[in-house]
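ok here's the first one, seq then struct tokens
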Amino acid sequence: MSRYQQLFNRLSAQNEGAFVPFVVLGDPTYELSKQILITLIESGADALEVSIPFSDPLADGPEIQGAVLRAIGNGMSVEKSFTLLKEIRDLYPEVPIGLLMYANLIHAAGIDQFYAKCAKAGVDSVLVADVPLRESADFKKAATAHNIAPIFICPPDATDETFSGIAKEGEGYTYLVSRAGVTGVAQRLENDSLEDNIAKLKAVGAPPIVQGFGISSPEQAKHYLDHGVAGVISGSAVTQIIRENLTDESALLEKLGAFIQSMKAATK
């Protein structure tokens, strides 16, 4: 049984949802990024979603773009990212770790070679943000060969073909985005297609639904969990705390821990 299966089974039995923070590896520095990842887990994160910094993060808004630039500016690389991931995996053998990637970085390494590195580092899943389901065969093949869960995005305007494809090809979890556009901290709750999309994904047997894009408060997390998703992802709000406390490491980690605790509390 995969780490994701174990996690969702356990949380379901406890009548809880999953809280999954997202950060950019190496932001702002390698060593502080490691402390941030440890703080996220120790403060209650059920799983991690992370990205390897890439110069053109098309799906990401200004907050995460800033994190990418900080990490790259401080020398973070693909190889260092895998080293960091392995260090976190060794510390936390049971926590699911997912990568959100862009295709260029994977192609640069060679698709099969990249997924082999993921497996060696203890990565559980890979979501390729700029590769749609219909063009994902080569990535899915490599993922399967190395026992990595392929994660697929379900957009607000998904078609019946997309729902069925996610159920057939996806593993680990389904990334349901709450709105069109790029990542960022949102103030309003998205409801237009939410209930229909959740119902359709469940009807076709898609992997557990995790809601993302714009979730920045316990109230928002609870709203989406109350609508039937299995978990929520928050990235820009986490990265904002990092940016606002770059000059005070202890305050950064303390505020980050408090935010994670509040978000996790909303899932219970």
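and now the second one, same deal
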Amino acid sequence: MTLSVLLLCLWVLLAFVMAAIPSNDNHWRRAYVLMALGAPLLVFLIWEGGVWMGLVGVAVACSVFRWPVYYLLRRLRRLIGAKE
């Protein structure tokens, strides 16, 4: 379990470094890179640490991807017909 947790911590550190560098596209390209790296890492975390550690990993990823999660939830609410 320690390897997956260490990799998750390195992923968070990478996210903070990438966010500190100025960007022309509001960091969306970097977010795509982090998503591509984070998805297999999350699977590895669930495989090595179990479902509860996976939920912790999802919470960490949601804290890093605040705006993409917000836009996804907004789009889902619009698709199911809920009023904003």
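notes on #2: Helices lie at 2-20, 28-49, 51-64, 66-80. The chain has one domain: 2-80.
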